[in-house]
Amino acid sequence: MNKRFTKILILFLSFFCFYLEVDAAEILQVTSSSVLLIGDHNRTYTVKLACTEITPDLEEKSVKWLKKQLPRHTKVNLKPKGSVDGVLVAKVIPFDSNIDISEKYIDEGLATNKC
Questions:
Q1: Fewer CB within 10 Å, N side or C side of the chain?
Q2: d(Cα 53, Cα 19) in Å, to the nearest integer?
């Protein structure tokens, strides 16, 4: 009887878990031309854009462009590439475009590809 009850309880809980809404990561702040603060309603992450290098003379223009492309609360997918000094290095892909923001950055001439 106890095993049967346990199996039914596990089945019920697994069925219930499929219907829970999962929150995606979203942009909280553009910190600099290559660093973002991203949150998922549980944690916040500092994320450095992968494969980009921005020259200091384009910093201000790059920050403005990045804030326009990734306004606060933009939902994004992260594809981690590693970490540097405790900062996650990842490709950041907005849900609405499915194109890595680093690729757009490089196409705009605001960054160079380091990969």
A1: N
A2: 41
